[in-house]
Amino acid sequence: MITSRPQWDRVVDVVVLGSGAAGLTAATLAHDGGAQVLLLEKADLIGGTTGVSGGMPWIPLNKHLADVGGSDTREDALTYIRRLALGTEPDPALVETYVDTAAEMLDYLETKTPLRMSAPPTFSDYYADQPGGKPAGRSIEPVPFDARTELGEWAPRVRTSPHLPWLTMEEGGKFLIGTDLPDEALAQSRQDADIRVLGSALVSSLFKGLLDRGVEVKLGTPGQELVVVDGEVIGLRAGRELIGARKGVVLACGGFEWNEEMVAGFIGQRLMPLSPPYNEGDGHRMAMQAGASLANMRAFWGQPALLEPGFELDGRAVPQMASIRSTPGVVIVNRHGDRFVNEGATYQDFPKTLTSYDPVGVDYPNEPPTWLIFDQRVKNGAMVLPTVMPGQPAPDWIAQAPTLAALAEQIGIPPERLEATITRWNEHVAAGEDSDFHRGTFWWEAFMTGGPTPAACLRPVTKPPFYAVELRNGTLGTSGGPRIDSSARVLAQGGVPIPGLYAAGNASACVFGGAYPGGGGTIGPAMTFGYLAGRSVASGAPREV
Length: 545
What we know:
Layout: E1 10-17, H1 21-32, E2 37-40, H2 74-85, H3 92-112, E3 117-118, E4 141-142, E5 145-146, H4 147-151, H5 169-172, H6 184-193, E6 195-196, H7 198-213, E7 216-218, E8 223-229, E9 232-238, E10 241-251, H8 260-267, E11 272-273, H9 282-289, E12 294-295, E13 300-302, E14 305-306, E15 312-313, E16 316-317, E17 320-321, E18 331-333, E19 370-375, H10 376-381, E20 399-401, H11 404-411, H12 415-431, H13 454-457, E21 466-471, E22 474-478, E23 481-482, E24 489-491, E25 497-503, H14 523-539
Parallel strand pairs: 1-2, 1-10, 2-7, 10-25, 11-22
Antiparallel strand pairs: 3-4, 5-6, 8-9, 9-10, 12-23, 13-22, 14-17, 15-16, 18-19, 19-21, 20-21, 24-25
Helix pairs in contact: 1-7, 1-14, 2-3, 3-14, 11-12
């Protein structure tokens, strides 16, 4: 941190760090508030974590609910969020700020930028059967966006997802819960024409809005240290430049999932990120040096994943979403060969089971490695990964054997334990009730098909050969960081705002705490508090820098 006023290389009103949903929204609102804005992106591509995501913000009370015959109330939204958060919200008042502002933010962006959204009619809240939950309409998605035409030479510099096919959630979402296969021909035609969907469509639409406004965007320029004089943030060092910020700096540069030291120190689990390898906690480090108060630092956006050899993102090995995990007939076991979870738990909830401690055995029995176990019936009908489709032979990195005992030997599990576990599972299937972990009763197991039933969710593991794939403890990003207020100002100890410093997205403490209410539970708050940050920083009086 620089604590004396330097000789600036340039001066603007507002500097925004990060080009995901939070940063693009903040830059849009800051510009529209009359500020001269400079947006800096550490990577050589626009989009951040949002660019490789499903691109769905979760927005209560949004106007698209009516398009799918839905309705919402402030009371329902607050009841639902509070039910899921279980008191882990860093600041309960910010939950109200979110519910009161999210739809306003969306209306503004759809009116003032090229962003257009729709509501998938089958995409429910992840816990829609809980008080305040809704069967559709809060998770919305961007309509397909013609990047080649609209962005021109910028199009190749906007991220696309390596994890998901070029299909909308309405078109392809059911493959995420193992019920349908994606339309490969439609996905390929979209890719050939550069018609963006999902997170890339969201980013492309917002980025086009910035280009239309003439906002300057610089790639390959990381924020390195803030300039803080007399307790006020007046600029920063970014790349080779010292940049003054007359009105403030907005941290929207992602989480810290790629920083092994921070992950070990704050989260205490081994994580394997699916995000671009630039989220190293730069914003967190700068905010801490400026005296920020932190919250939610043990939390992360979980995503159980499979690691395919040779699969990379920006030159780094990353895993892929384990969509097959919740397919009927897939059983998850720990390294002892025991089941320990309802396989249909949400991707956010699943990692919470890995830290269960056995005080008698003095062990974390569910600590990785954990394994997906399935039979030929599942292999014939489900997509293991986009590169391992039904009908294709299993690659060498997937363990397979003619018997369960032989499979257990391959993966280092006691054969008798695995055989006993699968025998018990098959007995549950025959009885039509999973008395151990209640498979077929948890809403998310069939959240896009009207809810679960044991008959739909229980399948035996009986047809050889048998398969095993190691399930990785993946993450889409961390969700802890500097505390913020209702204007997205970063707070110091004691709840006092740090003048000139704002944060949104995964560079701040998520208002939901450890909860994830539905598809887009990270992007919704990112955009909403990016909106508040941009509006707030633009409205402040310029300071001497």
